[in-house]
Amino acid sequence: MIELKGKISISRRTSMALEDCVVIEIEDDNSGMEAIEITLSLKNYGKVITNMSYIPCNFKFNNTGIIGKTREQKTVKVLIMEGYASATNPQIAAHMVNDDTVNELFLAGWKPRYDNFRNPKKRTDDGHVMVLFERWV
User: Fold this and answer.
1) How much helix, strand and coil, in percent to the nearest 5, is found in the chain?
2) Any idea what DSSP says for residue 123?
3) Which of 61, 11, 57, 59 is nearest to 35 (CA)?
4) Residue-by-residue pLDDT tens, the chain, 137 positions
5) What gap in Å lies between CA 40 and CA 131, rounded to an integer?
6) Alpha carbon separation from 33 to 83, 84, 118 (Å, rounded)
7) Is pTM, for the whole model, over 0.90?
8) DSSP 17-47
9) Cβ–Cβ contacts within 10 Å for residue 95, how many?
């Protein structure tokens, strides 16, 4: 097992349509993401806190692969090819770059925020676009 630091939250959820339950959420400190969410009926929660074991529950586990990792971000000034503004898909626009720095970032595991390529507020006067790149390490 891997030992990580995080935060725990226990809350009671009520619903007119569903049975009331207790939800236990654990958030990973490194990624800031919810790692696991455990749902127990009120009856089973009572059993757990009175020292009974192997009580049935439902849980959701975040298996995205980023739990325990931290996000790095950097903004890069990217030179864009002529006609990128007419590209209908941001991912197509992202491939219309004319910059070796971007290729190096892709190879190092950095991923761009594709919406930055088409955002007019991210454009500079000299034909570049300021693009946010991020990766989880």
Assistant:
1) 25, 35, 40
2) B
3) 61
4) 788 999 999 999 998 888 899 999 999 998 889 999 999 999 999 999 999 999 999 999 988 888 888 889 999 888 776 655 555 555 555 555 656 777 788 778 888 887 887 788 988 888 788 889 999 88
5) 43
6) 38, 34, 28
7) no
8) SS--EEEEEEEETTT--EEEEEEEEHHHHHH
9) 12
